[in-house]
Amino acid sequence: MSTLPAPGAPSPAAGPTVVVRTVPLEATDPLLAYLPSGLPPDELLSWVRRGEGLVGWGSALTFESRGDDRFAEAEAWWREIGRRAVVRDDVERPGTGLVCFGSFPFASDSAESARLVVPSTIVGRRDGQGWLTTISLDPQLRLLENPSVASDPEPPRDVAFADGDVSPADYAHAVAEAVKRIGAGEVDKVVLARDLVATASAPIDPRWLLRRLAERYENTWVFSVAGLVGATPELLVRRDQGLITSRVLAGTIRRTGDDAKDLALAASLARSSKDLEEHEYAVRSVADALAPHCSSMNVPEAPFVLHLPNVMHLATDVAAVSVDDASSLTLAASLHPSAAVGGTPTARAVDLIGELEHMDRGRYAGPVGWMDAHGDGAWGIALRSGALDARDPSQITLYAGCGIVAGSDPESEVAESDAKLIPMRDALASD
Predict the structure, then answer these.
(1) Strand partners, 396
(2) Which of 33, 65, 249, 324 would staple 313 via disulfide (CB 3.0–4.6 Å)?
(3) Could you say which of 73, 75, 189, 278 is catalytic?
(4) Gyration radius from the chain CA atoms
């Protein structure tokens, strides 16, 4: 593993050359099946949806940064890596060649660092076409060997759950206070989160969590970056050869498991003035942030209802054409935090989160995803997720949050947060 200096730090006259090789790969096994056993969680990487995407392992290069400039410093570091890379790419599609995976803390004052990881091996698949990429600091281009399917992961054992920094009662109190502040005109919307700590009797294998999430939540992007594992339904931004897309989720209702009742609930969600108001704030914040970088933006007039196994969301897909060379990470930085995870007005809502939430979100609700050397990539919002404890791999902290507006009821928001914890709670189950 090697870490290059951060921008502004002294740099050796001749930094390491990054040697990258991508070749086609004929493989039909699930991408997640290639992730090997025996590696630490921070060296297992994933961005997979419906069987396609990227998985990576190992660590050729890493980068960390904190504070207000974490996005700009990461972008500058990545450009420098690109300048030092020697790439032979026989596939030439977004996601081939030099690629990094990244995860960023929600708040600039978080104790957590932003992370970029360049794995030593990547297996990708898009539109049925597979590829294998190796990345090395060794100037000698090594012979590529097709990866093998790894052994099945062991399930977590004896998992026990305990309140984290924010108990359900604490959360209800924070929601009630937020509703007061909204009524006083301080903000229109604020997103508040809570945490739940799970502890097993042995180290938790993130590969188990990833496979369970992929099997049960096919409409989500199943991710793993530097020990942050989850399945997000919300695509913050994707840049793909000039096309920019973003999926906005805001407004949620819990499913009952009864199809007829759930259809009625979906209809009520689509008519709910409280949820439609919350959704409108989120869509407007995304469209306004993307506007300087885009043309021909398409923002649907009304949301659709996205059905997930545990909840239903109001959703809107925004699409536009890029008019500059802003990378996917630059676009993600311009969007973060959106109203969907921060609130409206954003700056005041984020201040209120710091005042009322009483915990460090870490990288929960921050951008998570990948980017290639051309700036193409995809970044989701790290929702429905958990952070494995680097000091105790048998422990993981789960997070969930809800958008609070004038009509919010504290007990209902606690119930909604419980529903949003279900994917990760179920992923930890051994049955």
Answers:
(1) 198, 388
(2) 249
(3) 189
(4) 21
| pLDDT tens across the length of the chain (431 residues) | 344 444 444 343 356 789 999 999 998 899 999 999 999 999 999 999 999 999 999 999 999 999 999 999 999 999 999 999 999 999 999 999 999 999 999 999 999 999 999 999 999 999 999 999 999 998 776 666 788 899 999 999 999 999 999 999 999 999 999 999 999 999 999 999 999 999 999 999 999 999 999 999 988 999 999 999 999 988 999 999 889 999 988 888 888 888 899 899 999 999 888 888 888 888 888 898 899 998 889 999 889 999 888 788 889 999 999 988 899 999 999 999 988 899 989 899 999 999 999 999 999 999 999 999 999 999 999 999 999 999 999 999 999 999 998 989 999 999 999 999 999 999 999 87
Query: Whose CA is closest to 279, among 338, 364, 214?
Result: 338
Contact 428, 200 (CB under 8 A): yes
Kindly write down the DSSP assignment for every residue of 30-78, as one continuous string: -GGGGSPSSS-GGGEEEEEETTEEEEEES-SEEEEE-STTHHHHHHHHH
Pairing of strands 377-381, 343-344: unpaired
Q: Give yes or no: 357 in active site.
A: no
Q: What is the DSSP letter of 259?
A: H
Tokens read off for 318: 């925004």
Q: Which of 73, 234, 278, 280 is catalytic?
A: 234
Q: Phi-psi category of 369—alpha, beta or left, where left has phi over 0 and alpha has psi -120 to 50?
A: left
**Contact of 198 with 428, CB cutoff 8 Å:** yes
Q: Any residues with CB less than 8 A from the CB of 352 and at least 6 apart, and which?
A: 178, 181, 186, 187, 190, 343
Determine phi and psi for 285, rounding to 5 degrees. -65, -40
Q: Please list the residues that pair with 136 across neighbouring strands.
A: 19
Secondary structure element (H or E) that encloses residue 209, with its range: helix 206-216
Strand 18-24 to strand 85-89: parallel, antiparallel, or no bridges (unpaired)? parallel
How many helices (H) and strands (E) the chain has is answered by: 8, 24
